[in-house]
Amino acid sequence: MATGLKVGGDVVKALEDVGVPSYVLDTTGIVRWLNAAAERLVGDVRGRHFTSVVAPEDSRRARELFSRKVLGTSSTTDATGVLVSTAGARVAVEISAVPLMSGERVVGVFGLFEGRADDRSTAPPPHLTPRQVEVLRLLEQGRSTKQIAAELHLSTETVRNHIRRLFRALGVHSRLEAVAAARAGSPD
């Protein structure tokens, strides 16, 4: 376990033996610990900032969720995203994270992630904006406009506007076409 994050040896041993990929970040976002399952999935990223493991299109959202936990405004977050391994492989994951506390003070973030079944995790078309990529990923998961608005903390009208712009950028007219176009590769 990392210096400055004090957890009993029995807890560390138990976490290392868990088959679910798990990690600990310090309050600056540096990966201080990960178990063998996480290392197999993303490589040894100890000492690196967590955003170096998050796909570029997901980094803004990941920073926002991390900040909420460090500031104490969110006790738990569950999100989907894409990680990039040290070998460059893209891994679609579901991430659950909680703040690590020492008394009343946040001293880090503990999280675990799990690969999502049947997710191709292809790179998004390069001409899309980061927000369009976020909306596209949620459309791929079958989320409604209202669900997307709740997850991104936006109004439903703002989400509708993002979806319209996404459709124009992909040259499509429906959610299904948008997902299919993104999975098939960006149009030339």
Assign the CATH architecture of the largest domain.
2-Layer Sandwich
Q: How many strand units?
A: 5
Oligomeric state of the chains present here: single chain
- The level 1 CATH classification of the largest domain is Alpha Beta
The CATH topology annotation of the largest domain reads as Beta-Lactamase
What count of structural domains? Answer: 2
Number of helices: 7
Poorly predicted spans: 1-5
The largest sheet is: 5 strands, antiparallel
Give the overall pLDDT as a whole number.
82
Helix percent band: 25-40%
Tell me the strand percentage band: 15-25%
* Silhouette: globular
Instruction: Trace the largest sheet across and list its strands.
Output: 2-1-5-4-3
Distance between the termini: 48 Å
CATH superfamily of the largest domain: PAS domain
- N to C succession of SSEs: HEEHHEEEHHHH
Counting helices, strands and paired strands, the structural category is alpha+beta
> What is the gyration radius calculated from CA atoms?
18 Å
